[in-house]
Each structure stands twice: as C-alpha cells, then as structure tokens.
Amino acid sequence: MQKKKGLLYVNRFYAETGKIIKEHLQEKEKLIQLWMERAEMGRAILIRLFKKHYGEEVYKILVDTRGNEIISEMKQERDDNSLEAFIKAMWTLPESFENTITKTESGYQMKVTKCPMYDLAKRLGIIEEDFYLICENDQFVPEGFNPSIGFKRTKTLMQGHECCDHFYYYKKPQSK
To answer: Which helix (H) or strand (E) holds 42?
Structure first.
C-alpha cells in the first residue's frame, strides 16, 4: 500500500510539473509574439516618420539597402545551388503558411494564399510598411542564392490580391 501511495505521488508530481512547464512555455511563446509585434510596429513607425519627412524615396532606399544585405547574407558556398535546391531551401514553410508549388516547363510557380507576416501586418495596421520591409525584398533572395535564378511576381497579399504569385526560373537556359 505504501509503495502504491508513493507511485501515485510521483505520478501526480510529474503531471503537475508537466502542466507547469507547458504553461510556462505557452507564456514564453506569448511574450515572444508580443515582442515581435512591438519590434515590427517600431520599425513601421520609424519608416512612417522618415516617409513623412523625406517622402516616397525612403521606400526605395529601404529596399535597396536591405536588398544588398540579403544578397550578401545569401551568398555562400553550396554543394547545390540549382533552382530545385533553392525551391527546397526557401519554400519548405511552416504550417502557418498556405501555398502551392507547381513545376512548369520554364520554372516554379508559387501561390501563397496564407502568410503569417501579412496577417500580422494587417492586424497591426502596417501593411504598406511591411510590403517594403518584407515583400519587396523577395526579389533579392534568388540572386543571393544563385545569380542565374530569376524572379517575377505580379501579385501580393500585402497589396490586396488573393495570393502572392512568385515565379522562379533560370535567366538563361541551363545545359543538361
């Protein structure tokens, strides 16, 4: 009987400890989300202030500056810098995204219909700023990965379209 009581106590202890840890992790996730939202808002407010003072040119400077940083960050020696490797590296997305990938004769067509970055920007009222902070930088990522990979896009969720329609292709036909 004593042994059984001890096991019940140990089981209850582990159950309670697990519950406390789970609650702590959930609270930590909430704090991280709050911090990310505040950081995003702070960047957007700065951009709004610069735009008010310097005009639309701020967006071009922001995109060009961040674009050059992205290209530098993406450049590295890889065993495989093919278009297929790029698609695999860049489009293996968390469940918070909803997208389709279609391989065509000339490249890969992506259609993103749910994007957590758009959802956050919409909720915070910073869609215009995040378009320039996030979406406009998409064009630099393939170039940093492999300069022979091209990028086209005609729609974004941030601009009010039903999807983002990324298309990646080789700028010049590749020899087989």
So the answer is: helix 2-54
Q: Tally the C-alpha atoms within 13 A of residue 101's C-alpha that lie toward its C-beta.
A: 12
Q: First CA to last CA across the chain, in angstroms?
A: 75
Q: Give the separation between CA 172 and CA 60, rounded to whole angstroms.
A: 28
Report the C-alpha gap between 49 and 27 in whole angstroms. 33
**Any idea how long the chain is?**
176
- pLDDT tens digits for 139-158? 999 999 999 999 999 999 99
* Residues contacting residue 85 through CB under 8 Å, at least 6 positions apart: 78
pTM of the model: 0.74
Residue that has been written with the tokens 């695999």 in this structure: 88
Taking only the tens place, the pLDDT of each residue in 52-87 is 988 989 888 888 888 888 888 888 777 888 999 999
Domains along the chain? 2-170 (3.30.1380)
Residue 155 half-sphere exposure toward CB, CA atoms < 13 A: 12
